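Researcher: Next entry in the queue.
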Amino acid sequence: MTDNRKRILVVGAGFAGMWSALGAARLLDAARTHGEQIEVALIAPEPSLHMRPRLHEENPLSLKAPLLPLFHATGIRFIEGSVRDIRAKDHEVEAVGTDGKAFTVRYDKLVLASGSALFRPPVPGLDSAAFSIDQISDAARLEAHLDALASQPDTPARNTVVVAGGGFTGIEIAAELPARLRSILGEHTAVKVIVIEQADAIGPDLGVGPRPVIEQALSELDIEVRLNVAVKSIDTDGIVTSNGERINAETVIWTAGMRANALTKQFNAERDRLGRLHVDASLRVTGEDDIFAAGDVAFAATDDAGNHALMSCQHAMNMGRFAGHNVAADLIGGELLPYRQPVYVTCLELGPWGAVFTEGWDRQIKLVGNEAKALKRQICTEWIYPPEADRKAAFDAADPMVTVVA
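Model: Structure for this entry, 406 residues:
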Protein backbone atom coordinates (compact mmCIF):
# COMPACT_ATOMS: atom_id res chain seq x y z
CA MET A 1 0.00 0.00 0.00
CA THR A 2 1.28 3.47 -0.91
CA ASP A 3 0.55 6.69 0.92
CA ASN A 4 -1.26 8.25 -2.07
CA ARG A 5 -3.75 5.39 -2.50
CA LYS A 6 -7.34 6.52 -2.08
CA ARG A 7 -9.35 4.68 0.54
CA ILE A 8 -12.96 3.85 1.20
CA LEU A 9 -13.26 3.03 4.89
CA VAL A 10 -16.18 1.06 6.31
CA VAL A 11 -16.70 1.25 10.08
CA GLY A 12 -18.30 -1.93 11.43
CA ALA A 13 -18.39 -5.62 10.50
CA GLY A 14 -22.08 -6.25 11.04
CA PHE A 15 -24.59 -6.94 8.30
CA ALA A 16 -24.50 -3.39 6.95
CA GLY A 17 -20.73 -3.10 7.24
CA MET A 18 -19.91 -6.38 5.54
CA TRP A 19 -22.26 -5.70 2.63
CA SER A 20 -21.04 -2.09 2.32
CA ALA A 21 -17.47 -3.27 1.87
CA LEU A 22 -18.54 -5.91 -0.64
CA GLY A 23 -20.73 -3.43 -2.50
CA ALA A 24 -17.87 -0.95 -2.83
CA ALA A 25 -15.35 -3.62 -3.88
CA ARG A 26 -17.83 -4.98 -6.43
CA LEU A 27 -18.34 -1.64 -8.17
CA LEU A 28 -14.62 -0.87 -8.26
CA ASP A 29 -13.99 -4.31 -9.74
CA ALA A 30 -16.70 -3.80 -12.35
CA ALA A 31 -15.46 -0.30 -13.20
CA ARG A 32 -11.92 -1.59 -13.76
CA THR A 33 -10.39 1.85 -13.39
CA HIS A 34 -6.81 2.07 -14.63
CA GLY A 35 -5.84 5.30 -12.90
CA GLU A 36 -5.21 5.80 -9.24
CA GLN A 37 -5.60 2.83 -6.92
CA ILE A 38 -8.48 2.69 -4.47
CA GLU A 39 -8.48 0.54 -1.37
CA VAL A 40 -11.61 -0.74 0.34
CA ALA A 41 -10.89 -1.23 4.04
CA LEU A 42 -13.13 -2.31 6.90
CA ILE A 43 -12.33 -1.58 10.53
CA ALA A 44 -13.91 -3.53 13.39
CA PRO A 45 -12.91 -5.19 16.67
CA GLU A 46 -12.81 -8.64 15.01
CA PRO A 47 -13.18 -10.10 11.50
CA SER A 48 -16.42 -11.95 12.06
CA LEU A 49 -20.12 -11.42 11.49
CA HIS A 50 -22.14 -11.93 14.66
CA MET A 51 -25.52 -13.58 14.12
CA ARG A 52 -27.31 -11.15 16.38
CA PRO A 53 -30.83 -12.23 15.29
CA ARG A 54 -30.08 -15.66 16.77
CA LEU A 55 -28.86 -14.67 20.22
CA HIS A 56 -32.03 -15.92 21.89
CA GLU A 57 -30.82 -19.42 20.99
CA GLU A 58 -28.52 -21.73 22.93
CA ASN A 59 -24.74 -21.81 22.45
CA PRO A 60 -24.37 -18.14 21.44
CA LEU A 61 -20.57 -18.32 21.26
CA SER A 62 -20.97 -20.38 18.10
CA LEU A 63 -23.14 -17.78 16.39
CA LYS A 64 -20.50 -15.93 14.39
CA ALA A 65 -19.15 -16.35 10.87
CA PRO A 66 -15.51 -15.66 9.89
CA LEU A 67 -14.97 -12.89 7.35
CA LEU A 68 -11.26 -12.98 6.55
CA PRO A 69 -11.56 -15.65 3.79
CA LEU A 70 -14.29 -13.56 2.15
CA PHE A 71 -12.27 -10.36 2.46
CA HIS A 72 -9.15 -12.04 1.02
CA ALA A 73 -11.15 -13.32 -1.95
CA THR A 74 -12.61 -9.90 -2.69
CA GLY A 75 -9.57 -7.72 -1.98
CA ILE A 76 -10.98 -6.00 1.10
CA ARG A 77 -8.45 -4.98 3.73
CA PHE A 78 -9.40 -5.72 7.33
CA ILE A 79 -8.16 -3.38 10.08
CA GLU A 80 -8.54 -4.65 13.63
CA GLY A 81 -9.60 -1.94 16.02
CA SER A 82 -12.46 -0.10 17.69
CA VAL A 83 -13.20 3.37 16.34
CA ARG A 84 -13.43 5.97 19.08
CA ASP A 85 -13.44 9.23 17.13
CA ILE A 86 -14.35 10.35 13.61
CA ARG A 87 -12.72 13.58 12.48
CA ALA A 88 -14.74 14.34 9.38
CA LYS A 89 -12.93 17.60 8.54
CA ASP A 90 -9.59 15.78 8.59
CA HIS A 91 -10.93 12.67 6.83
CA GLU A 92 -9.61 10.32 9.48
CA VAL A 93 -10.73 8.13 12.34
CA GLU A 94 -9.00 7.35 15.58
CA ALA A 95 -9.22 3.78 16.80
CA VAL A 96 -7.89 1.61 19.59
CA GLY A 97 -6.25 -1.73 18.84
CA THR A 98 -6.38 -4.92 20.85
CA ASP A 99 -3.14 -3.83 22.52
CA GLY A 100 -4.88 -0.74 23.88
CA LYS A 101 -2.86 1.62 21.73
CA ALA A 102 -4.53 4.34 19.67
CA PHE A 103 -3.94 4.70 15.94
CA THR A 104 -5.30 6.79 13.09
CA VAL A 105 -6.73 5.68 9.74
CA ARG A 106 -7.12 8.12 6.87
CA TYR A 107 -10.00 7.89 4.40
CA ASP A 108 -11.34 9.63 1.31
CA LYS A 109 -14.88 8.29 1.70
CA LEU A 110 -16.42 6.64 4.75
CA VAL A 111 -19.39 4.38 5.40
CA LEU A 112 -20.57 4.39 9.00
CA ALA A 113 -22.12 0.99 9.76
CA SER A 114 -21.35 0.68 13.45
CA GLY A 115 -24.73 -0.76 14.41
CA SER A 116 -26.74 -0.31 17.58
CA ALA A 117 -26.75 -1.15 21.25
CA LEU A 118 -29.35 -2.04 23.83
CA PHE A 119 -31.08 0.99 25.34
CA ARG A 120 -30.16 1.22 29.02
CA PRO A 121 -32.17 3.90 30.83
CA PRO A 122 -31.27 4.88 34.42
CA VAL A 123 -33.21 2.06 36.05
CA PRO A 124 -31.65 1.22 39.43
CA GLY A 125 -29.87 -2.13 39.24
CA LEU A 126 -30.09 -2.48 35.46
CA ASP A 127 -26.34 -2.49 34.87
CA SER A 128 -25.47 -4.62 37.88
CA ALA A 129 -28.30 -7.14 38.21
CA ALA A 130 -29.91 -7.67 34.81
CA PHE A 131 -28.93 -9.85 31.87
CA SER A 132 -29.41 -9.25 28.16
CA ILE A 133 -28.87 -10.87 24.77
CA ASP A 134 -27.65 -7.70 23.08
CA GLN A 135 -24.22 -9.03 22.11
CA ILE A 136 -22.70 -12.52 21.97
CA SER A 137 -20.84 -11.92 25.24
CA ASP A 138 -24.10 -10.88 26.91
CA ALA A 139 -25.95 -13.95 25.64
CA ALA A 140 -23.08 -16.19 26.77
CA ARG A 141 -23.19 -14.66 30.25
CA LEU A 142 -26.93 -15.32 30.42
CA GLU A 143 -26.47 -18.91 29.26
CA ALA A 144 -23.84 -19.55 31.95
CA HIS A 145 -26.18 -18.09 34.56
CA LEU A 146 -29.11 -20.25 33.43
CA ASP A 147 -26.97 -23.39 33.45
CA ALA A 148 -25.80 -22.59 36.98
CA LEU A 149 -29.37 -22.36 38.30
CA ALA A 150 -29.50 -26.15 38.61
CA SER A 151 -26.98 -25.93 41.46
CA GLN A 152 -29.16 -23.48 43.39
CA PRO A 153 -31.89 -24.46 45.89
CA ASP A 154 -35.27 -25.18 44.31
CA THR A 155 -37.25 -22.01 45.04
CA PRO A 156 -39.90 -20.03 43.12
CA ALA A 157 -37.36 -17.23 42.59
CA ARG A 158 -34.83 -19.63 41.05
CA ASN A 159 -37.49 -20.97 38.72
CA THR A 160 -38.78 -17.55 37.64
CA VAL A 161 -37.47 -15.40 34.78
CA VAL A 162 -38.66 -11.86 34.14
CA VAL A 163 -38.25 -10.52 30.60
CA ALA A 164 -38.38 -6.72 30.61
CA GLY A 165 -39.74 -5.63 27.25
CA GLY A 166 -42.41 -7.26 25.12
CA GLY A 167 -41.04 -6.31 21.70
CA PHE A 168 -39.50 -8.53 19.03
CA THR A 169 -36.45 -9.59 21.07
CA GLY A 170 -38.38 -9.98 24.31
CA ILE A 171 -40.98 -12.21 22.68
CA GLU A 172 -38.38 -14.44 21.04
CA ILE A 173 -36.29 -15.02 24.17
CA ALA A 174 -39.40 -15.46 26.35
CA ALA A 175 -40.80 -18.10 24.00
CA GLU A 176 -37.56 -20.08 24.23
CA LEU A 177 -37.26 -19.98 28.00
CA PRO A 178 -39.88 -22.42 29.38
CA ALA A 179 -38.47 -25.41 27.51
CA ARG A 180 -34.91 -24.24 28.08
CA LEU A 181 -35.43 -23.88 31.82
CA ARG A 182 -37.06 -27.29 32.11
CA SER A 183 -34.14 -28.88 30.27
CA ILE A 184 -31.81 -27.36 32.88
CA LEU A 185 -33.93 -27.68 36.03
CA GLY A 186 -35.89 -30.82 35.25
CA GLU A 187 -38.98 -31.51 33.15
CA HIS A 188 -41.34 -31.42 36.12
CA THR A 189 -40.04 -28.13 37.58
CA ALA A 190 -42.70 -25.45 37.90
CA VAL A 191 -40.94 -22.76 35.86
CA LYS A 192 -42.45 -19.31 35.36
CA VAL A 193 -41.65 -16.80 32.62
CA ILE A 194 -43.13 -13.30 32.97
CA VAL A 195 -42.97 -10.62 30.27
CA ILE A 196 -43.25 -7.03 31.49
CA GLU A 197 -44.42 -4.53 28.85
CA GLN A 198 -45.22 -0.89 29.54
CA ALA A 199 -47.48 -0.56 26.49
CA ASP A 200 -51.07 -1.78 26.48
CA ALA A 201 -50.36 -4.66 24.07
CA ILE A 202 -47.69 -7.29 23.51
CA GLY A 203 -45.40 -6.52 20.58
CA PRO A 204 -46.55 -2.90 20.33
CA ASP A 205 -44.30 -2.14 17.34
CA LEU A 206 -45.46 -5.27 15.49
CA GLY A 207 -48.99 -3.98 15.09
CA VAL A 208 -52.32 -5.74 15.31
CA GLY A 209 -51.74 -8.17 12.43
CA PRO A 210 -49.72 -10.93 14.13
CA ARG A 211 -50.85 -10.10 17.67
CA PRO A 212 -53.52 -12.82 18.01
CA VAL A 213 -50.96 -15.44 16.97
CA ILE A 214 -48.38 -14.08 19.40
CA GLU A 215 -50.90 -14.03 22.23
CA GLN A 216 -52.01 -17.59 21.44
CA ALA A 217 -48.43 -18.88 21.33
CA LEU A 218 -47.40 -17.22 24.60
CA SER A 219 -50.56 -18.48 26.30
CA GLU A 220 -50.00 -22.05 25.14
CA LEU A 221 -46.38 -21.83 26.30
CA ASP A 222 -47.65 -20.75 29.76
CA ILE A 223 -45.89 -17.40 29.54
CA GLU A 224 -47.44 -14.66 31.66
CA VAL A 225 -47.70 -11.20 30.09
CA ARG A 226 -48.19 -8.09 32.23
CA LEU A 227 -49.12 -4.95 30.30
CA ASN A 228 -49.23 -1.25 31.21
CA VAL A 229 -46.45 -1.73 33.72
CA ALA A 230 -42.74 -0.87 33.72
CA VAL A 231 -39.72 -2.02 35.69
CA LYS A 232 -38.94 0.46 38.45
CA SER A 233 -35.85 -1.24 39.91
CA ILE A 234 -33.85 -4.45 39.61
CA ASP A 235 -31.74 -6.42 42.07
CA THR A 236 -30.25 -9.89 42.18
CA ASP A 237 -33.42 -11.24 43.77
CA GLY A 238 -35.97 -9.76 41.36
CA ILE A 239 -37.70 -6.55 40.37
CA VAL A 240 -40.09 -3.92 41.63
CA THR A 241 -42.64 -2.73 39.09
CA SER A 242 -44.00 0.75 38.50
CA ASN A 243 -47.18 -0.16 40.40
CA GLY A 244 -45.16 -1.24 43.44
CA GLU A 245 -45.37 -5.00 42.98
CA ARG A 246 -42.40 -7.11 43.99
CA ILE A 247 -41.58 -10.10 41.72
CA ASN A 248 -38.94 -12.45 43.08
CA ALA A 249 -36.76 -13.82 40.30
CA GLU A 250 -33.10 -14.78 40.12
CA THR A 251 -33.08 -14.01 36.40
CA VAL A 252 -34.09 -10.68 34.86
CA ILE A 253 -33.48 -10.14 31.14
CA TRP A 254 -33.60 -6.60 29.77
CA THR A 255 -34.75 -6.27 26.13
CA ALA A 256 -36.41 -2.85 26.14
CA GLY A 257 -35.34 -1.10 22.96
CA MET A 258 -32.28 -0.20 20.88
CA ARG A 259 -30.31 2.95 20.13
CA ALA A 260 -27.91 3.76 17.30
CA ASN A 261 -24.20 3.46 18.04
CA ALA A 262 -22.79 6.48 19.86
CA LEU A 263 -20.51 7.40 16.94
CA THR A 264 -23.55 9.03 15.33
CA LYS A 265 -23.33 11.77 17.97
CA GLN A 266 -20.03 12.97 16.56
CA PHE A 267 -21.68 14.56 13.56
CA ASN A 268 -23.43 17.92 13.52
CA ALA A 269 -26.30 16.27 11.67
CA GLU A 270 -29.97 15.56 12.20
CA ARG A 271 -30.82 12.34 14.04
CA ASP A 272 -34.10 10.59 14.79
CA ARG A 273 -35.37 9.59 18.23
CA LEU A 274 -33.26 6.40 18.11
CA GLY A 275 -30.09 8.34 17.34
CA ARG A 276 -29.97 7.36 13.66
CA LEU A 277 -28.48 9.81 11.18
CA HIS A 278 -30.76 11.26 8.54
CA VAL A 279 -29.56 10.25 5.09
CA ASP A 280 -30.63 11.11 1.55
CA ALA A 281 -31.78 8.58 -1.05
CA SER A 282 -28.17 7.57 -1.78
CA LEU A 283 -27.58 7.01 1.98
CA ARG A 284 -25.26 9.99 2.23
CA VAL A 285 -25.40 11.60 5.67
CA THR A 286 -27.16 14.95 5.52
CA GLY A 287 -24.57 17.72 5.45
CA GLU A 288 -21.57 15.38 5.06
CA ASP A 289 -20.26 15.13 1.49
CA ASP A 290 -17.92 12.20 2.07
CA ILE A 291 -19.80 10.12 4.64
CA PHE A 292 -22.51 7.54 4.03
CA ALA A 293 -24.41 5.52 6.63
CA ALA A 294 -26.10 2.13 6.56
CA GLY A 295 -27.86 -0.24 8.90
CA ASP A 296 -28.89 0.66 12.43
CA VAL A 297 -27.17 4.08 12.32
CA ALA A 298 -29.16 5.29 9.29
CA PHE A 299 -32.67 6.77 9.23
CA ALA A 300 -33.46 5.85 5.64
CA ALA A 301 -36.66 5.85 3.61
CA THR A 302 -37.44 2.46 2.10
CA ASP A 303 -40.09 3.70 -0.33
CA ASP A 304 -42.17 6.72 -1.29
CA ALA A 305 -45.01 5.82 1.07
CA GLY A 306 -43.37 7.18 4.21
CA ASN A 307 -41.85 3.94 5.52
CA HIS A 308 -38.34 3.87 6.95
CA ALA A 309 -35.86 1.08 7.52
CA LEU A 310 -35.97 -0.70 10.87
CA MET A 311 -33.08 -1.82 13.04
CA SER A 312 -33.00 -5.26 11.44
CA CYS A 313 -30.64 -7.34 9.34
CA GLN A 314 -33.35 -7.40 6.67
CA HIS A 315 -32.81 -3.69 6.03
CA ALA A 316 -29.14 -3.51 7.02
CA MET A 317 -28.07 -6.00 4.36
CA ASN A 318 -29.64 -4.13 1.46
CA MET A 319 -28.68 -0.72 2.81
CA GLY A 320 -25.11 -2.01 2.92
CA ARG A 321 -25.24 -3.04 -0.72
CA PHE A 322 -26.51 0.39 -1.78
CA ALA A 323 -24.19 2.34 0.52
CA GLY A 324 -21.17 0.40 -0.74
CA HIS A 325 -22.12 0.93 -4.36
CA ASN A 326 -22.79 4.62 -3.83
CA VAL A 327 -19.68 5.46 -1.83
CA ALA A 328 -17.54 3.87 -4.56
CA ALA A 329 -19.54 5.53 -7.34
CA ASP A 330 -19.15 8.88 -5.61
CA LEU A 331 -15.39 8.44 -5.52
CA ILE A 332 -14.96 7.47 -9.18
CA GLY A 333 -17.69 9.65 -10.66
CA GLY A 334 -20.20 6.90 -11.29
CA GLU A 335 -23.98 6.82 -11.01
CA LEU A 336 -25.42 6.75 -7.50
CA LEU A 337 -28.46 4.55 -6.94
CA PRO A 338 -31.42 5.51 -4.73
CA TYR A 339 -31.91 3.02 -1.91
CA ARG A 340 -35.33 1.44 -2.12
CA GLN A 341 -36.66 -1.67 -0.36
CA PRO A 342 -40.44 -1.65 -0.76
CA VAL A 343 -40.89 -5.32 0.17
CA TYR A 344 -41.06 -5.82 3.93
CA VAL A 345 -41.62 -9.04 5.85
CA THR A 346 -41.58 -10.09 9.50
CA CYS A 347 -40.70 -13.54 10.78
CA LEU A 348 -41.00 -13.89 14.55
CA GLU A 349 -39.83 -17.06 16.26
CA LEU A 350 -42.11 -18.38 19.01
CA GLY A 351 -40.05 -21.16 20.55
CA PRO A 352 -41.42 -24.73 20.40
CA TRP A 353 -44.80 -23.34 19.35
CA GLY A 354 -43.43 -22.33 15.95
CA ALA A 355 -43.30 -18.88 14.37
CA VAL A 356 -45.39 -16.29 12.56
CA PHE A 357 -44.53 -14.86 9.14
CA THR A 358 -46.13 -11.69 7.80
CA GLU A 359 -45.83 -9.60 4.65
CA GLY A 360 -46.16 -5.84 4.22
CA TRP A 361 -45.97 -2.93 6.64
CA ASP A 362 -49.50 -3.82 7.75
CA ARG A 363 -48.12 -7.29 8.58
CA GLN A 364 -50.61 -9.58 6.94
CA ILE A 365 -50.19 -13.13 8.27
CA LYS A 366 -49.00 -15.59 5.63
CA LEU A 367 -47.57 -18.51 7.63
CA VAL A 368 -47.89 -19.71 11.24
CA GLY A 369 -46.64 -22.57 13.37
CA ASN A 370 -44.14 -25.10 12.07
CA GLU A 371 -44.34 -23.87 8.48
CA ALA A 372 -43.33 -20.38 9.54
CA LYS A 373 -40.64 -21.79 11.81
CA ALA A 374 -39.07 -23.70 8.91
CA LEU A 375 -38.84 -20.43 6.97
CA LYS A 376 -37.37 -18.68 10.00
CA ARG A 377 -34.73 -21.39 10.27
CA GLN A 378 -33.83 -20.95 6.62
CA ILE A 379 -33.53 -17.18 7.03
CA CYS A 380 -31.41 -17.41 10.17
CA THR A 381 -29.15 -20.31 9.18
CA GLU A 382 -28.71 -19.61 5.46
CA TRP A 383 -29.92 -16.31 4.05
CA ILE A 384 -28.32 -13.92 6.52
CA TYR A 385 -24.89 -15.60 6.51
CA PRO A 386 -22.00 -14.18 4.43
CA PRO A 387 -21.66 -15.35 0.83
CA GLU A 388 -19.05 -17.95 0.02
CA ALA A 389 -15.43 -16.83 -0.20
CA ASP A 390 -15.48 -16.70 -3.99
CA ARG A 391 -14.87 -13.40 -5.75
CA LYS A 392 -17.54 -13.73 -8.43
CA ALA A 393 -20.18 -15.24 -6.15
CA ALA A 394 -19.61 -12.58 -3.50
CA PHE A 395 -19.76 -9.72 -6.00
CA ASP A 396 -22.90 -11.14 -7.61
CA ALA A 397 -24.52 -11.26 -4.16
CA ALA A 398 -23.46 -7.65 -3.47
CA ASP A 399 -25.25 -6.18 -6.49
CA PRO A 400 -27.96 -3.90 -5.05
CA MET A 401 -30.07 -4.06 -8.21
CA VAL A 402 -30.56 -7.80 -8.44
CA THR A 403 -30.51 -9.03 -4.85
CA VAL A 404 -33.75 -9.22 -2.90
CA VAL A 405 -33.43 -9.91 0.82
CA ALA A 406 -36.41 -11.31 2.72
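Model: The two ends are 38 Å apart (CA to CA).
Researcher: Noted, moving on.
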